Amino acid sequence: MLAVQENINTSWSSLQEPVCASKFPSAYLRLLSALENGWYILHTELNPSWDQNGFVYRIQLQQKEQERTEELILPKTRNVDEILEQYCSLEYIL
Predict the structure, then answer these.
(1) How far apart are CA 87 and CA 90, in angstroms?
(2) Closest Cα to residue 89, out of 29, 36, 28, 46?
(3) pLDDT per position as a tens digit, 10-51
(4) What is the DSSP string of the chain?
(5) Contact 22/32 with Cβ under 8 angstroms?
(6) Any idea where the domains of the chain sit in the sequence?
(7) Which end of the chain is more exposed for a tag (fewer CB within 10 A), N or C?
(8) Angle of helix 2-16 relative to helix 26-36, nearest 10 degrees?
């Protein structure tokens, strides 16, 4: 049982580790990594950003085998829009 619990925590924790230098935000790279590792998008919301100068996505991800759910907050950019179009139908909630 402990080995299973450790594996569950390790899978998401490894996605949270710093990534190599990139022009993309680390949250965007975590989203790509999660999708590549079998996570799927459960729900998305588009909300005004905290500073009211744009919008951010609130993305809920789920791993089916272990029924884990995690959340990412990403700024609305063309790259994020393309990924979300590819992996889900967007629900805009303002």
Answers:
(1) 9
(2) 46
(3) 555 655 555 566 677 788 889 998 999 889 899 999 999 888
(4) -HHHHHHHHHHHHHHHS-----SS-HHHHHHHHHHHTTEEEEEEEEEE-TTSSSEEEEEEEEETTTTEEEEEEEE--HHHHHHHHHH-------
(5) no
(6) 28-94
(7) N
(8) 140
Q: Which amino acid is at 56?
A: V
Q: How far apart are CA 9 and CA 82, in angstroms?
A: 29
Task: Decide: pTM greater than 0.85.
Answer: no
Q: In the numeric block, which tokens belong to residue 77?
A: 């950019």
Q: How confident is the model at residue 82 (pLDDT cuts 50, 70, 90)?
A: very high
